[in-house]
Amino acid sequence: MDYILGVIAVICIETIATVGLAVFTGFTGLFSLGHAAFMAIGAYTAAILTYFYNAPFILALIAGMIMSGLISIILGFPTLRAKLRGDYFAIATLGFGEAIRVILENMSITQGARGLPGIKHYTTLPVAIFFAVLVLWLTKNFIWSKYGRNAIAVREDAVAAEMAGIDLFKVRMLSLIYSAMCAGLAGGLFAHYLNFIQPVMFTSILSTRLTSAVVAGGMGSITGPVIAVALFIAVPELLRVANMWRLVAYGLILVLIMIYRPSGIMGYHELSFEAIKNLLRWISRGKTAGRKEM
Amino acid sequence: MFLQTLVTGLSIGGVYALMAVGYSLVFSILNFSNFAHGTIIMLGAYVGYFIISNLKLGFTFSLVGAIIGAAILAVLNVKLAYTPLINRRASSLYLMITAMGVSIFLENMVYVTVGSHFYSFPEIFKQTSIKFFNSDISPLDLWALVFSFISIYGLHLFLTKTKLGTAIRAASYDMTIASLNGVNMSRLISVVFILAGSFAGLAGIFLGIKYMVYPTMGWITNKAYIAAVIGGLGSLPGAVIGGILLGVIETFVSVYISSTIRDVFSFSMVIIFLVFLPAGLMGRHLEEKV
Amino acid sequence: MALIELKNVTKVFGGIVAVKNVSFSVEKDEIIGLIGPNGAGKTTIFNLITGVYDATEGKIIFQGRDITGENPVTIVKSGIARTFQNIRLFNKLSVLENIRTVLFRKADYNLANALLRTPKVVRIEKKLCDKSLEFLEVVGLTDYINNRADSLPYGLQRKLEIARALALEPKLLLLDEPAAGMNPDECLDLIELITRIKKEYNLTIIMIEHHMDVVMELCPRIVVINFGEKLMEGSKEEVQNDPRVLKAYLGEEYSYA
């Protein structure tokens, strides 16, 4: 039972990072291959505060979020201002993510590549669930406000958005900061869940996994990426597959999704009770009516 | 000291250039960042290692085998993973993510099947170094440099002197127009991946000899895309110049400043170049049409 | 005083002159046609006015203020809106959301309010919704408010673009080939719509159009562009009877036939 609860806690933590990234990638349309770095920054900031300075957990988490947010501005200011092509921006974030990791490996306060052991276990299951629900709710509100609509407009057609008076830089920057702060929060929770962090946990593989959960879940959906995260984590856990096979399967799944269902599990839709009813109706009709809007 | 650093830098740069050429070649045609290129380099190194130490067939066979093996893998890669997306005219971002997926898949496939051991090549080039103006040059570095230049020059001749090469260059300017002019795009893409794969195999051998063979050795190939960004994504002369420049600058940074700052420095170069000189040193700038 | 004035505007793209020394002005409440063969540089002129490109030389004065080199967002704010030759809608948003999005300036709540979805946000969003419906009513799209923009038929997508531009409450409206791809009935409908919105919203309009009947019906004054230069400017009769215009459209051989 403890084991299953542990899996749920991990799903909750990764949901926070993924939902934040969904705002940036799914709704604003920019791809990042470096968001693991924001998780790392949040994790190290929070862990160093509780470990060396005995700071209260909640303050440490907030400090981690703020630090991630500030560093995202350093990344975003030049790159978003320059209006880089989508793939060039992604390559820049990959460089950024690797640079942060190398820096963490060479700082003394982070204890370099050996990592920080013995971080206090503050992230219990209720804490993880609380923050996951909170972030989901805030993100839903964000997307349904003018901020979210502006982000979608920028994703759909940047030129038209600009001609409608939407400041592309501001919108993209806001989404980046939001996603970085979510990743920072997830990182802080993660550090106090595992009780141990190491720079090698935050490589480009984690960044890719976060981005691919968004893509696999559906660009422009909040619930889709959450489902994808849950599947990515739960299925191999429950099957008790060795870690390396997981990554093999994950790479393969990523390729297959790109080939066969590039719009993701949920496409541009949200999972709601209404949608579940429709889905059940669709299944019971023997799939004859063709694809129903989910 | 200075000359020694320069020579070491040049030889590292030569391997970077070899890696970057294959990466840039794909970028020039399909306009996407093929992150699976590093994995193909790694697999090429494994093939070469297998031939030389398990089949005991000697260096020439090892080199040829690595080149052929990597080329076959590169073609399989494009046929199985990329072609469906290319046919659908998917955006380059989707191709890039697919490439990431391929890279994660293959790298971990090696982990679970071959394991995470480090294999080192048997001694091929004599360890004794050659004296050159008071500085030591290892024969390996020298050969790496020589092979890099010969093969890159060969590629240059192929692209400029043959009909197929001309078609590739035409397609890199405008794929639609090239296909309208009767160029068989599917075949052309295969040829490009055969070339890119061959370069990956060659780079894999030298990388393997220099740094040993292991599943995550593809990480070094991050330097390939950094080099390509510096030179200008999709530009072949840019890849060569970017690779050599990166090798030399990195060596100087690690000798004269600090070796820990070297990688931070290289990764920051990516961001700096993309922001201030997105076309790199040799690339052409593409603007979006309104 | 003219609402907008282009003074010797030139745009060079890497050695190629796309617009050369073009000057014209538009008075308030006027509607002028901008015509010329394909590739003459008409859309480039729109891109220069709206700040997508910076003019290489020359000045653009709007309401007595020099807007040359300003960024697109500032220019939109100062009262210029446009539509696009190749329709550019926010495809995956609904028809209603397409309008509500561009009304964001009227939504005076801050980020904290938005994140917590306070009653203030709900109230303002409701108001924006009603406001959007007004604009959709004007172009006759109220039956489609929940449809995704890219699911609309072509003609209605053009109308949605016009509604979106109207929602920016511009003083100057730039229409880039609004009648492209429309049949004669739809053209008549469009003429009626443009006449109506011009009156209702006190608009000044510059219209690029290839359908001559639409241009002749709507525009008392026409500017003809050819090879990036202003060929002539005058009333529609003057333009219709000018041999240079015929030559520009039909080429050398036909002009004296």
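The first strand of chain C starts at residue 4 and ends at 13.
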